[in-house]
Design goal:
It contains five helices and two strands; from the N terminus they run H-H-H-H-H-E-E. The radius of gyration is 16 Å and the shape is globular. The chain is about 55% helix and about 5% strand. With about 150 residues, it is mainly alpha-helical. It has one domain. Helix 3 packs antiparallel against helix 4. It starts with 16 loop residues before the first helix and ends with a strand.
Length: about 150
């Protein structure tokens, strides 16, 4: 059995727990705190249990985004992170351990793991790993600032 170091390329299908934590740390996120914040934001939106519905997925995505912005203290979510969070919301039901999962113990870890699994591939496909804000001066030229 071979051991993996954090500096090795993550396996696209089965990254290790350490690699998943490293992916989030690269964005300034701590995984347990992120998962707790997602669950708290879901509760604030009125969701205490999982539901396989578009409205729940929308709340899950928004909860992830709120948790991301608060924890990183950024103004913008990188494109690759945003798309990974949206796609993972549609795949999470296939990865849950129980039919009625506990949001804290099952849903949040399954969701954050899925986001981390696809994030490196999305960055390699050209989606920006960094957020940007467009400023439009009066003359019509645009300038991009990296937060």
């Amino acid at each position: 059995m071979t051991s993996h170091s954090i500096s090795e390329k993550p396996d696209r299908l089965t990254p290790t727990e350490a690699q998943i934590k490293q992916i989030y740390q690269n964005y300034g996120l701590e995984l347990p705190a992120l998962e707790q914040a997602i669950v708290a934001h879901l509760a604030d939106r009125g969701w205490n249990t999982y539901a396989d519905s578009d409205s729940f997925r929308e709340a899950l995505i928004r909860s992830f985004e709120d948790a991301y912005l608060k924890q990183t203290e950024k103004q913008v979510i990188p494109g690759a992170v945003s798309i990974a969070a949206e796609d993972a919301a549609y795949w999470v039901s296939d990865h849950l351990q129980a039919p009625s999962p506990d949001l804290r113990d099952d849903l949040a870890p399954a969701y954050t793991t899925l986001v981390a699994k696809v994030l490196p591939a999305y960055c390699r496909r050209g989606l920006s790993p960094h957020g940007s804000i467009e400023f439009y001066p009066p003359d019509g030229d645009s300038h991009t600032a990296q937060p």
